[in-house]
Amino acid sequence: MNRHILVFLSLFFMTTIFFACSNRGDNIVYNYYESSPGAYVIDHEYDEEMGFSMFEEISLFRKIRCQAYVPPGYKHPNEGSPYPVLYLLSPFGETEMFFFSHGLQQVADQMIASGEIKPMIIVCVNGYTGYGGSFFGNSWAGGKYVDAIGSIQNEPATGSMIDYIDFAMNTISDTRFGAGKGRANRAISGIDMGGYGAMRIAIRYSENFGSVSAISAPLDFDGATGNGGFVELFSQVVENMDTTYDALDTSYSDPLRTMIFAAATTFSPHDTDYINPTFYGYDWNNPQGPQLWHADDTLRITDTLTYFEPFGPISSMKYHLPFYDDTTVAGVNEDYTYQPIWSLWLDNNIESILTDYPGALDTTDILLMTTADADFNFYQQTLDFSQYLTGLSIEHNLDTYSGYDGYPATGERFFYDILRDILKFHSDSFELLD
Length: 434
Description:
CATH topology of the largest domain: Rossmann fold
Strand order of the largest sheet: 1-2-3-5-4-8-9-14-15
Shape: globular
Number of helices: 16
């Protein structure tokens, strides 16, 4: 057996490094990690929020995996002083381990030791799915990540991620220290896809987060003019096709195309006819046959013009693309946008979310960071969102960063460098107990 797995299994049986929820059935870790004194593996189920996910086969059933950093000298609840919490959401194509592989533990240890930041718990959250990312959306078919991560249900065993972290770890929460203390000492952040999720969650559950940061994130789907953002990318996807979209290769050979697919699974999923006898949540008495049950029906899509059903073993991956293929458009629509589906995407745009929750960011500390080298036009989307916030007179910080001569800051190459800025921003925002 691999030596690393032996080390992990030894730690599993000899220590309390692994957290599991009580009375939740089968809570096991399907992927093994080598844990360290400052890292805790967390595995928690979300029956309601993730029970209808189209990625059930890939996303470890109803679980969202996490790995939590704890500061040196960390003590469990009732054994020492409590800590503020920062939630970090993974970028596109990465898991919760991204942050540890980019130096999180070393950087946090060093900054705490030097007094640059307050000791804190940092929960790294996995958003990876079949196409590389969930975009941390909030749909029954794609998974209700927003509710699973950001809500507070006051149910430690069956509730949200915050519920469980506040129950299992030594955090500053309202339950333990009074109203408002949790929000003042809870933050959320992420890079690209994770940055979008962080901002969306911070708006929807603004009462639970005192600060938010987003790094080179898709924060303005249609740009300042309505023709930017993702719209500018659709033509690139279409022009790189060698066939109609219903016969597209769904491999990772084209990162832009794969990213669009991933977003579509969350923003415009097809959730009307997937039948899986082992899956629960169906109306078996429907005269038309078993039908997927929803708490709401707002995501039922009957349009078939841009319906995409990949061929392969994961038959539950069905969704609608927000653009025509080249044979359909025939030069009529220059940007290829297919409005009925694109409108569903715009419903998930951060501007739309903020419109639904006016004033949500008025008392939230906000940091936006971006680089001109960002992938997928996320640089411009971040700038456009900053401009939008300015128009609403919402205070925020906008910082830019770059790579080095001959080494552009593409992807997340230099996240290690900006991690210090992110930790410092949120540390300064925390309001510790008197």
